[in-house]
C-alpha cells in the first residue's frame, strides 16, 4: 500500500514538472513573437549632437544596444561592441544610453575608446517603446527595420558575431 502511494506522489510530481515546462515553452515562444515586430522609428541626438533615426539606415542591418554607464555588464561588453564595430562596417551599431546626462556619457565613452554613435534617451521614451526591462539589451534590425532578434544581458564578441549573422 505504501509502495502505491509513493508511486502516486512521484507520478503527480513528474506530471506537475512536465506541465510547468510545457507552459514555460509556450509562454517563452509567445513572448518572442511579440518582441519580433517593426522597429519604432525614433529620433534621438547623439553625444556629439547629431540627430539619428532608424529610417536613416533603411537597407542595412542595425544593432541597437541599450545601456547605462553605471551598469557593470554594460561596461564589460563595450570593448567587444567596439571591436565588432571596427571589424564589421556593413552592420550599423548604435548605442542608446538610458537616462543619463550628456557629460557623464561623453566622459565614459572617451575613457572606453568608443567610436560608434551613442544616442541619448534622456527621458526614457525610446527605451519604453522597445520594452526595455533590463540592461544591457541588444536588438538586431533587418534591412527593412524589423526586429529579428533580441538579447537581454551581456554579450561577448563571439556572441555578437553570431547574433548579427556574421
The name of the CATH superfamily of the largest domain reads: Glutaredoxin
Number of helices: 5
Secondary-structure element order, N to C:
HEEEHEHEHEEH
Q: Which fold name corresponds to the CATH topology of the largest domain? A: Glutaredoxin
State the major sheet.
7 strands, mixed
Low-pLDDT stretches: 22-35
Transmembrane segments: 6-27
Subcellular location: Cell envelope
InterPro entries: Redoxin, Thioredoxin-like_sf, Thioredoxin_CS, Thioredoxin_domain, Thioredoxin_ResA/DsbE_sf
Organism: Anaerocellum danielii
Summarize, please.
This protein is 44% helix and 22% strand. The protein is of the alpha/beta class. A 7-stranded mixed beta sheet has the order 2-1-5-4-3-6-7.
Helix/strand layout:
Elements lengths: L1 H34 L7 E4 L4 E3 L7 E7 L4 H16 L3 E8 L3 H11 L5 E4 L3 H5 L7 E5 L5 E6 L4 H7 L3
Parallel strand pairs: 3-4, 4-5
Antiparallel strand pairs: 1-2, 1-5, 3-6, 6-7
Task: Characterise this structure.
44% of the residues lie in helices and 22% in strands. The chain has 166 residues and is α/β, with parallel strands linked by helices. The chain has two domains: 1-35; 43-163, Glutaredoxin (3-Layer(aba) Sandwich), CATH 3.40.30.10. The N and C termini lie far apart (61 Å). The chain crosses the membrane at residues 6-27. This is TlpA disulfide reductase family protein. It holds the Pfam family Redoxin. It comes from Anaerocellum danielii.
Amino acid at each position: 500500500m505504501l509502495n502505491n502511494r509513493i508511486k502516486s506522489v512521484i507520478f503527480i510530481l513528474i506530471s506537475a514538472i512536465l506541465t510547468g515546462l510545457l507552459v514555460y515553452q509556450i509562454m517563452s515562444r509567445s513572448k518572442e513573437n511579440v518582441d519580433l515586430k517593426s522597429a519604432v522609428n525614433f529620433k534621438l541626438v547623439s553625444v556629439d549632437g547629431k540627430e539619428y533615426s532608424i529610417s536613416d539606415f533603411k537597407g542595412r542591418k542595425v544593432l541597437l544596444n541599450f545601456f547605462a554607464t553605471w551598469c557593470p555588464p554594460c561596461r564589460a561588453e563595450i570593448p567587444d561592441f567596439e571591436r565588432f564595430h571596427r571589424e564589421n562596417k556593413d552592420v550599423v551599431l548604435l548605442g542608446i544610453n538610458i537616462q543619463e546626462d550628456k557629460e557623464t556619457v561623453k566622459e565614459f565613452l572617451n575613457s572606453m575608446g568608443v567610436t560608434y554613435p551613442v544616442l541619448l534617451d534622456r527621458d526614457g521614451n525610446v527605451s519604453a517603446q522597445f520594452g526595455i526591462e533590463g540592461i544591457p539589451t541588444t536588438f538586431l534590425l533587418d534591412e527593412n527595420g524589423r526586429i529579428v532578434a533580441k538579447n537581454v544581458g551581456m554579450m561577448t564578441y563571439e556572441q555578437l558575431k553570431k547574433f548579427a549573422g556574421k
